[in-house]
Amino acid sequence: MSRQQFGYLVGFFAVAVWAVAGFCAAAGAVLAGVVGWLVVRTLDGELDVAAIIDRVSPAGRRRR
After folding, report:
1. 27 with 35: CB under 8 angstroms?
2. What residue spans define the domains of the chain?
3. What is the C-alpha to C-alpha distance for residues 32 and 51, in angstroms, rounded to an integer?
4. Per DSSP, which regions of the chain are E strands?
5. 0.70 exceeded by the pTM?
6. With the C-alpha atoms ordered 41, 3, 9, 57, is the resulting torsion angle positive or negative?
7. Residue 18 near residue 26, CB atoms below 8 Å
8. How far is it, in rounded angstroms, from Cα 6 to Cα 37?
9. Which end of the chain is more exposed for a tag (fewer CB within 10 A), N or C?
10. CA 23 to CA 46: how far, in whole Å?
11. For residue 64, is pLDDT > 70?
12. What's the pLDDT score for residue 20?
């Protein structure tokens, strides 16, 4: 399965949860998925905090 297909499925299931259980349940499911992803990346030693901060910071405030 390609990354595009996986991303599509994740989006589809997030909207399906939203439609069935409501916005709070969908937001909770997405938040739990992000936390799980961060935990696994940390345990694998592949989490680069500086790269994450660089991605989410505004373009004018990037440090190099």
Report:
1. no
2. 3-61
3. 21
4. none
5. no
6. positive
7. yes
8. 14
9. C
10. 31
11. no
12. 92
